[in-house]
Design goal:
The chain is an alpha/beta fold. The chain contains 4 helices and 5 strands, in the order E-H-E-H-E-H-E-E-H. The protein has a single domain, classed as Response regulator (Rossmann fold, 3-Layer(aba) Sandwich), CATH 3.40.50.2300.
Length: 122
């Protein structure tokens, strides 16, 4: 069965490339351009196997999105994307699979996704 992944990323080029890399890697991938749109998709049934969430998005920050999704899906796996040096000051989120710093390469993205889905990330 193919893993379902939601990419929440407001930068159009980053979102497009991330989705393309994941689809080429065999993942069933959907995308949202802001936090509110991502929240609506993420709360739908059944849950996604993995969320890839940019920390700084309009309408809802990544940490807030993760917290709200986990109210419904407490075990939701997440990769947080961080591209701003100030993102290190964001609130820690429990049980996040990992943080991936931008810019990242396609092999780095796929390795992070694989590790998170297999539960090997920390």
């Amino acid at each position: 069965m193919t893993s379902r992944i939601l990419v929440a990323e407001d930068e159009p080029l980053v979102r497009m490339i991330t989705v393309r890399v994941l689809r080429d890697g065999g993942y069933d991938t959907e995308a949202a351009e802001d936090g509110e749109s991502a929240l609506a998709l993420a709360l739908a049934d059944p849950p996604f196997d993995l969320l890839i969430v940019d920390q700084r998005m309009p309408r809802l920050l990544g940490d807030e999105l993760i917290e709200r999704v986990r109210e419904r899906w407490p075990d939701q796996r997440v990769i947080r994307l961080m591209g701003n040096p100030n993102d290190a000051e964001s609130r820690p989120v429990d049980v996040t699979c990992m943080t991936l710093r931008k810019p990242y390469t396609p092999p780095q993205l796929l390795a992070a996704v694989e590790a998170c889905l297999e539960g090997q990330a920390g």
